[in-house]
Design goal:
Strand content: 15-25%
Distance between the termini: 18 Å
Low-confidence stretches: 241-245
Number of strands: 8
Oligomer: single chain
Shape: globular
Radius of gyration: 17 Å
Number of helices: 8
Order of helices and strands: HHEHEHEHEHEHHEEE
Length: about 240
């Protein structure tokens, strides 16, 4: 397993708050709105289709949490599989999707547990998850196997820098308290070059890298050039190329 037991337990405790936009997950709701727009734009540009109509597009949301992004993509017609190692998260996602009449295939477990070896997806999302796994390279390698030829992997995480320690941990968790204490461990943050190297070994090529700025006092998020705190990287697999292994 690539998931860390203590991380699963912590998310289980928070699982009931996923869909409360004013609760502990408020920063994720703000960031999710920004990322959702970017995901739809990336779909439109890469696959040459209207981002508002995702019918027939196979989407995998790894570390889906309570389904904040899985659900709106499914609403647009995407065939969405959301997986998470936290039983509480999966249960919360299933309950909310059922209450809204949205069809999402939610599964419990790591990628190697929840997915069949032959399952592949046009779009794979790994948002705010790589900093919570034991072995980043192994995790990326496993996830990359499920990116179909011509498909995309979008991964967002936090850079391991002095700036991220000050802003993402000291500021966000201890001073402003916009995130619960213990949400992040600085030593688990991932440098962009480390993520790109893991993806390259798995047969993916980085095609975009952008920083994200989050202003906790006003709860606003925007894209920026600075990747030293939050960033999102996009990787592509060439058409006709199968995943390693």
């Amino acid at each position: 397993m690539t998931a860390i037991a203590s991380e699963i337990e912590r998310f289980d405790r928070l699982s009931a708050t996923w869909w409360n936009p004013s609760g502990p997950m408020r920063p994720l709701h703000v960031v999710n709105a920004l990322r959702q727009t970017h995901v739809l734009e990336r779909i439109a540009s890469h696959f040459g289709r209207d981002g508002e109509s995702l019918a027939g597009l196979r989407i995998l949301d790894v570390g889906c949490g309570g389904g904040l992004l899985s659900e709106p993509l499914a609403r647009r017609g995407g065939q969405v599989v959301g997986i998470d190692a936290s039983p509480g998260n999966v249960a919360a996602a299933q309950r909310h999707a059922a209450s809204q009449g949205v069809a999402v295939d939610y599964r419990l477990g790591d990628p190697d547990q929840a997915l069949g070896p032959a399952e592949s997806f046009d779009l794979v999302l790994a948002l705010e998850v790589v900093e919570h796994v034991q072995d980043v390279a192994a995790f990326v390698g496993t996830v990359a196997q499920h990116v179909a030829p011509g498909g995309l992997l979008l991964a967002s995480t936090i850079d391991r820098t002095w700036k991220s320690f000050i802003f993402a941990i000291v500021g966000a968790e201890y001073v402003l308290r916009v995130l619960p204490r213990g949400t992040h461990q600085w030593q688990r943050f991932v440098r962009p070059a480390e993520l790109a190297a893991a993806a390259s070994r798995a047969g993916l090529q980085q095609i975009d890298l952008r920083g994200m700025r989050y202003l906790p006092l006003v709860h606003r998020a925007s894209w920026c050039r600075d990747t030293r705190v939050n960033y999102l990287a996009t990787f592509a697999r060439g058409a006709g190329r199968a995943g390693p292994g």
